[in-house]
Design brief:
The chain is α+β, with helices and mostly antiparallel strands and about 250 residues long. It has four helices and 15 strands. The chain has one domain: Creatinase/methionine aminopeptidase superfamily (Creatine Amidinohydrolase), CATH 3.90.230.10. The strands form four sheets. It has a five-stranded antiparallel sheet. Strands 1, 2, 4 and 5 form a four-stranded antiparallel sheet that branches. The two termini are about 30 Å apart.
Length: about 250
């Protein structure tokens, strides 16, 4: 069942979303070579708790961290680890959710440690971020989810990258995961029709070498099947009469 939000609900979602924004600003300012992925998780949790919010992922389905931190060929659900040390040029995707005022925000950014990577890494990060906004542009009343997925898929594939299909975006609100599923691929004019009050987590997960993935023995970490790089960007978006409203930004 799709739960539509009132304008008051959406304002509360912005409160949770700003926590996510502040978490990422802090991570971006502190991320450096030599840190562990556990260090990054600690930053996320510290900022979240200082804002009187709750990390949405900690303990969710048994996940041990506050953030999913995925490095290089890891697509999503990387478990924070004191032994995973970051190097200059690594891609680090940080997926973080916060709950405050009774609602959730969910957002992801992919960082390049040290700010500079290989050409393929920089292109992948740029295209994935641009694809997110292509999808958000389609989040208007009367469009369909297939329009959102098509915008993301066509943009990425036209630039030689590959869309992960097994994992998708989702509805979000009082629960971190709500209906509907939001694929990052699709056909125009198909799928659920978008209407006022829907709130969606749009999150393209894009690979450099293949769309195929594998799950590691920890039963959480998803990696590219060929060891190629992966990037991930996400915003929480509300469908309103005035167009898409991103709740996970300042």
């Amino acid at each position: 069942m799709i739960i539509r939000k009132t304008p008051r609900d959406i304002e509360k979602m912005k409160i949770a979303g700003r926590v996510c924004y502040n978490v990422f600003e802090e991570v971006g300012s502190l991320l450096k070579e030599g840190m562990s992925t556990q260090d990054v998780d600690d930053i996320c949790e510290r900022v979240c708790l200082l804002e009187d919010a709750i990390p949405s992922f900690k303990g969710l389905y048994g996940f041990p961290g506050s953030a999913c931190i995925s490095v290089n060929d890891e697509v999503i659900h990387g478990i924070p680890n004191t032994q995973r040390i970051l190097k200059a040029g690594d891609l680090v995707s940080v997926d973080f959710g916060a709950c405050k005022a009774g609602f959730n925000g969910d957002s992801t950014r992919t960082f390049i440690v040290g700010g500079k990577g290989t050409k393929i890494a920089e292109d992948l990060v740029r295209v994935t971020k641009e694809a997110l906004y292509k999808g958000i542009d389609e989040c208007v009343i009367g469009n369909r989810l297939g329009d959102v997925g098509y915008a993301i898929q066509s943009y990425c594939e036209s630039r030689g990258f590959y869309v992960v299909r097994e994992y998708v975006g989702h509805g979000i609100g009082k629960s971190i995961h709500e209906d509907p599923n939001v694929p990052n691929y699709g056909r125009k004019g198909t799928g659920v029709r978008l209407s006022e009050g829907m709130t969606l987590a749009i999150e393209p997960m894009i690979n450099a070498g293949t769309a195929k993935i594998e799950i590691l023995p920890d039963k959480w970490t998803v990696v590219t099947a060929d060891g190629s790089l992966s990037a991930h960007f996400e915003h929480t978006v509300a469908i309103t009469k005035d167009g898409p409203v991103i709740t996970t930004k300042k």
